[in-house]
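Morning!

This is the sequence you dropped in the shared folder:
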Amino acid sequence: MTDNNARAECACGAIPLIGEEAPSFVADSTQGIVKFPEDYEGKWVILFSHPADFTPVCTSEIATFGALAGEFRALNTELIGISVDSICAHVAWLKNIQEKIRYHRYNGQPIDFPIVADVKMDVARKYGMIQPSSSDTKAVRAVFFIDPAHRVRALIYYPLSNGRNFEEIKRLLLALQTTDKFGVSTPADWEPGDEVLVAAPSTMSDLKKREGAEEEGAMDCQDWFFCRKKLGKAI
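The structure's back. Tokens below.
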């Protein structure tokens, strides 16, 4: 196995790693046929799985994604859900959620992003979502952050029993977009509007430029390898 195609192997298949191209797929969904990545040119994608329709934790999550879908789209980001249930089950469940479920910010908004019916587990296996030590019939709660170049930029896995933190999902998306737009890094507990980190200098010329920027008040350096600055504008 070479460095270029190294993957984390498990009984569920290969888990795409950060920096790798996200596996392509064509699948039926609640919004018709999804062709990934062709249908999402120029977009960020949050691809996520849930264990099963008509279950309490998954219901709270789909409702929350429904409430936040507009905010993600405003960040040039589309949502794609996946579970091993059928289209009929998905449609009935979503109808039930819209009519009966009210949870935090969800108040009956349309759930208009696609939820893939992955009955044969083809997509789930491509993304390492079927983990037999947890369940060999349900997908774990996986979240993949995929950039407009169709590269996996981050991934988070949760167990069947515990719901996701949606503020963290949005925060991490904004952090990735900030890194791409401004060429900076974000520190621990970074929130939009906070100071960002500047890469450590690799040459004497870089170090002198940094010293000049610090003298001008453009950045705050506590040591040569740890400098913070404010961004001129936010995402």
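Headline: The CA atoms of residues 134 and 140 lie 8 Å apart.

More detail when I'm at my desk.
O.
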